[in-house]
Structures are given as structure tokens and as C-alpha cells.
């Protein structure tokens, strides 16, 4: 049993092969013009859906569930005519929604984007037009434009038609789900079945939340004219879903009401000029979410690390990134060494017993030696210092230690050097994986480039699974 678990943990960090599609892709000479045209196109293409809804929501909500086998986070949306529930893996840094259209995609409201149309420009589609050599249908059309759907888990990449179909979601007042609303021409990429490899069973694609005009948050904000904000609350329980909100608060997880956003602390959202995605094209800008960390403390003492690694360099290396496709945190190798050695030393001072490592983790401890007081595990405190000493991101024990085997708790971070191909792909110095984000409530404000966050919701006697979905 343990051997299987070890293999599962190792497999989550094994890199897949990448396609040689890069020769097919080039930068468009129209890029400067399109940069100024995008806002107009966005209004023209997306806002037409507003007239389709007599009710204009201020916010939308979708569930998100942790898959027990892959530790990926899965949401369910309703798409097509007649409506079909579609399960997608959540990728915070994904550029757009892509769906397998090769395996029985049927919908009377499906439409391919016409080559050189406003939809193709809005999607920043690849140059040129494509034709279908087989029977035309979803994913195989004549005179259409293409994108490059990417699987951030396996690092596979392929081509896919820019497509449109009906999308149906639930509105919310922040306290309860409300009536359903429609986006008649939601833009996504139609692609092939093989790209699903490595994704959670039953899923048919990826929901991209990145900083692009056709990612899920931006399309929904444009369709209903609400703020370009979304808030993520990942549940640590596989049996109880968390939630993702689109639009502003209130956000309530309490029986008697109460707005969690009133407890937010804020930090700046940073841009990375180069993608850290392993399947990104050379020099492609990042659509992922970064924040600025200026120091790391353990038990109140600064780690003696090269602080220049905490900044984002011009080649895209460095900084601190959020990820929902990395199950656990990833640290640049020198930071990892100092971090683990210091934590082990501080844990020993608290009489926490170190035990044999469980791959892919190296710093592991006897769970029985960790004292719990009022439900909180007593371990060395870890904080990410942000723009000032008064603004910190605390990593509490529940986001710090994972039960990797029976009676064994391990520091839930891995060494970036243990990941294949790290030398050829720019990487963030700190990646906060899904485990570090669980039961934290995080708002990404794309309009103001600001990130709002709470401490663990446990501090407020609630959890991400407490929203009344």
C-alpha cells in the first residue's frame, strides 16, 4: 500500500514530453495593432451575451472538488444544447478553456470561429487558417483559426479550433447560489482526446483562469459587466467541494452571514515577462499569477537565502507563483536546502522526531511527536514576508505538513532540481501548490493587479467546503 502511495507522489512531479509544435507557431506582425483593438473586440464579441439574460448577476459561482487519485482540482460547468455537465481540471495559469471534442461532442449551439473573425483576434489565434481533411464537425472545421491547448500536468501541447458554444452557470449573491444565467457564445478551444492524458478521471479538458482575454474569469466579467475579479477557495476534503466566485463579494461561508472579504489583506499582483509554464513557447509572456515575497521566516527568523531569487528576473526566473496543477509546493534548490535544514533544526528543538523520508519529500517526522493544542498542530511557524514586515502570508501546519504515510508527516515541498527539464524551463523560485492554498480564501483582482487573501478559514471557524452550494 505504501509503495503505491510513494509511486503516486513521485508520478505527480514527473514531466511529460512536449510537442515540437513550436515551429508551427510564430508571432503576428499585427500584434501592436491588436493590442489596442482588444478592448473593443472584447466588448463587441462577448457583451452580446448580456442581452440573452433578463437577470444581470453581480457574481457567479462554481464548485471545485479535490480529486483523490490525482490531487487535481476539478470543477463542473454546464455547456452545449441540450445541456451537458462538463468536468474540467482547474489551472490557475491556463490561457483558456479547452475541451475534448473528439469523443462524442454534440451540440446544436456549437459554432466554429470563422478565420480572421473578431473571435479569432480576441483569442490571439495562431497565424493562418486551417481546413478539415475529415468529416467536418466540432474540432475539425474548414476556414477556422487555431489555438495551442496545453496540458499543464503532462506538458503535452497540440492544436485546437477556436470554437463557441452555450455556457450555463449559477449566479450568487455571495451567500447562496441563485438563478442560472447563460453565455451563448463562450469561446473555448476544441481539441483531441489524447490531450486528456494525466488528467483526473471523468474530466474532458482544462478550465484556464490565466490573465488572458478568453480565460474563464475575463470572458464572464465581460459577458455580465462585473469586475474582473475571481476568488478561489480550495477544499482539503475530497468528499466536500470548495468554491470559486467570479465577480466581487460579499463572500460568505458562515451560517449567520458575514463577508470574508472584510478580513482580506492585500498584496500586489506581479507580471512575469516570460512564462514559467513547462510547455510555453520560448519567450512567451506569462499568464500566471505571481506575488512579491521579500523574505521567508521560520520561527520568526529570516532564512539566510539569496534574496535576489525572490525577484522576477528579465528571463522569467524567480518570484513566487500560485499553481493548482502542482499538488505541493516547489522551491528553488538552494532555498529548498536552507528551508528544510532550518525547519528540521527548529522541529528538533520542539522535540519533533524526524523519520525516514517518503518520496518525493525529504523532511519527514513522526506524527505522534507533534503536539496539538485546540486542534492546531504545534510546529515551527513559517511566514512569507510580502511588501512589508506587517504583511505576511502565514503557512500554517495544515498547509505545511502532509501525511505521506501512516504516522508520517512530511514537509509538503519538493526540490525544483528533482523535477526533470528544470534547467531548460524558467521556473519560479517559490511555487505555492494546491496543498498550500487549501482552505485559504484568495481573490485575484485583474483590473487593479491586486491579490486579497485571508489566513486559514479555520481561524474563522469555517472552511472552504462551508459555502451553501
Automatic annotation (TrEMBL):
Compartmental location: Secreted, Extracellular space
Residue intervals of the Peptidase A1 domain: 73-454
Gene3D superfamilies, per database record: Acid Proteases (2.40.70.10)
Source species, domain of life: Eukaryota
Full protein name: Basic 7s globulin
Pfam families (UniProt xref): TAXi_C, TAXi_N
Family: Belongs to the peptidase A1 family.
One GO MF term attached to the UniProt entry: aspartic-type endopeptidase activity
Keywords: Secreted, Signal
InterPro entries: Aspartic_peptidase_A1, PEPTIDASE_A1, Peptidase_aspartic_dom_sf, TAXi_C, TAXi_N
GO CC, any one term: extracellular region
One biological process term in Gene Ontology: proteolysis
Keyword Transmembrane helix (UniProt): no
Keyword Signal: yes
